[in-house]
Amino acid sequence: MSVRAGFANTQEQRELASGETVFAEGDTGREMFGLISGTIALRTGDRTVRVLEPGDTFGEMAIVSEAPRSLTAVATDAAVLAVIDERSFLFLVHETPMFAIQVMRSLAERIRELDALSQDEPGPAYPSRGSSLRP
């Protein structure tokens, strides 16, 4: 099973209109998302950190940490998301081991971006970047 097929087979999908917020910086969360269609902007304040495309994941830290969301995620087009809670995450890891690797890569990239931003700007910075799961 491909990772994208895993998204399509998740129990819950969420449809968003352009401009709709998925979650806001500071929110608590217990799920991550896989982008099936559309685009999502990850923002901090007024600044867009990254624009995600189909196949990307975001909100991964909610699966492994109870910390508040570090960014705001907003649909920039109509979008369809796969909602991935802990149970769905474990299923995807079992059925598609590359999924776990992609999530770890995403988290590693986020740490690198945080380090780079913290050297460029005073004060805390909380970058995020979805992992590309395109074949």
How would you summarize the topology of this molecule?
Blueprint: H1 3-8, E1 12-16, E2 21-23, E3 31-37, E4 40-44, E5 47-52, E6 57-58, H2 61-64, E7 72-75, E8 79-85, H3 86-95, H4 97-120
Antiparallel strand pairs: 1-8, 2-7, 3-6, 3-8, 4-5, 4-7
Q: How can the largest sheet be summarized? A: 4 strands, antiparallel
What's the gyration radius in Å? Answer: 14 Å
* Amount of helix: 25-40%
Q: How much of the residues is beta strand, in percent?
A: 25-35%
> How many angstroms does the end-to-end distance come to?
12 Å
What is the structural class? alpha+beta
Q: What string gives the helices and strands in order?
A: HEEEEEEHEEHH
Give the CA-based shape: globular
Task: List low-confidence stretches.
Answer: 122-135
What is the residue-mean pLDDT, rounded to a whole number? 80
Question: Oligomeric state of the chains?
Answer: single chain
> In order across it, which strands form the biggest sheet?
1-8-3-6
Strand runs, count: 8
Count, helices: 4
Short description, anyone?
By secondary structure, this protein is of the alpha+beta class.
Characteristics:
135 residues, alpha+beta, 4-stranded antiparallel sheet, 4 helices, 29% strand, disordered C terminus
Describe this structure in words.
The chain is of the alpha+beta class and 135 residues long. The protein contains 4 helices and 8 strands, in the order αββββββαββαα. The strands form 2 sheets. A 4-stranded antiparallel beta sheet has the order 1-8-3-6. β4 and β5 form a beta hairpin. α3 (86-95) crosses α4 (97-120). It starts with a helix and ends in a 15-residue tail after the last helix.
